[in-house]
């Protein structure tokens, strides 16, 4: 299955609400809160859609069913850096989609935005995400110790980067 990407729209709010409130997505990603309300997400989407430091794409399967969200954010045009991330619903995980998304993100960052270094972060216990990032040439830059509180305990966040030059 080869997913397609299209720009995020305000009409995607119900899907983004589902995605951000999906327990398995929340567990695997560096998201700070669970049970995000529609009102908070609508404000967040409006910000993403109008701020030049963010590019978001909805990932869809061949019949147009949303699978996840591809994010290029914290775009810094002076220092030529950005951060990338992706969120997938459980039915789409484990199919190689994340690697394809990161390849797309690197191409957009390099060829469209002129970025020379991209950053990504993941929760330290997410070994699958770390493996994909390393496979794509990201290198660990550091660990933010006890940076995320989830499930009644603190977790480390691994910071990675990749040069695009």
TrEMBL record:
Give the Pfam families listed for this entry: Acetyltransf_3 (PF13302)
Q: Where is the N-acetyltransferase domain?
A: 3-161
Q: Which domain of life is it from?
A: Bacteria
Instruction: List, alphabetically, the InterPro entries matched.
Output: Acyl_CoA_acyltransferase, GNAT_dom
Q: Please state what the protein is called.
A: GNAT family N-acetyltransferase
């Amino acid at each position: 299955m080869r997913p397609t990407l299209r720009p995020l729209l305000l009409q995607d709010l119900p899907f983004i609400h589902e995605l951000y409130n999906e327990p398995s997505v929340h567990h695997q990603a560096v998201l700070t809160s669970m049970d995000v309300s529609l009102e908070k997400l609508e404000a967040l989407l409006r910000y993403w859609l109008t701020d030049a430091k963010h590019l978001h794409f909805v990932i869809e399967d061949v019949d147009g069913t949303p699978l996840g969200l591809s994010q290029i954010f914290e775009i810094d045009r002076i220092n030529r850096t950005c951060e990338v991330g992706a969120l997938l619903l459980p039915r789409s995980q484990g199919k190689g989609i994340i690697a394809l998304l990161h390849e797309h993100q690197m191409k957009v960052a390099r060829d469209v935005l002129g970025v020379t270094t991209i950053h990504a972060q993941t929760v330290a216990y997410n070994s699958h995400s770390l493996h994909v990032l390393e496979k794509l040439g990201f290198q660990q830059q550091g660990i933010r110790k006890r940076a995320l509180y989830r499930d009644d305990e603190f977790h480390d966040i691994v910071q990675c980067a990749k040069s695009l030059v």
